Amino acid sequence: MVDSYLRERSSKDWKKSEKHGAAEWLAERWTSIALIVLTGWSLWSAYGLMGQGYDAALAFLRVPLNAGLMALTFVITVWHTYMGLNANVLDYFPNSRLIKLVSFIFCLLLLIAALGGLFLAFKV
Question: Can you give the residue ranges of every domain in the chain?
């Protein structure tokens, strides 16, 4: 019964999101691919630093390439998180601007905290 109901409906009957299109879909996929590579690099780096102590971790982060890759990892992770949260908000609460604002502020604070911690490594 459900199958016949679905077959009889035209594509115009289906709810379509005007705000979530191909550009967002591609951005989510590209950030996923970038995070696979950057997370692999982060895990490999963390494995190499195991047991070496705090000073070795600070020395690692003071290398510009390592600091840049770590910052890129933070930025792409937060961007990917924001896109995922935004997609869920659009799916379940399409008219809620408050929830969109809260998710944006959450991701912004998360990014500030992550990058702030990274920049503190240069101050110590």
Answer: 20-123
Residues with Cβ within 8 Å of residue 35, at least 6 apart in sequence? 73, 76, 77, 80
pLDDT digits (tens, 9 = 90+) for 63-74: 999 999 999 999
CA nearest neighbour of 81 among 113, 116, 122, 58: 113
Q: 70: exposed, middle or buried (C-beta count within 10 Å: 0-12, 13-18, 19+)?
A: buried
Are 23 and 90 contacting, i.e. CB atoms less than 8 angstroms apart?
no
pLDDT at position 64 is 92
pTM over 0.90: no
Topology of domain 20-123, CATH: 3 helical TM bundles of succinate and fumarate reductases (1.20.1300)
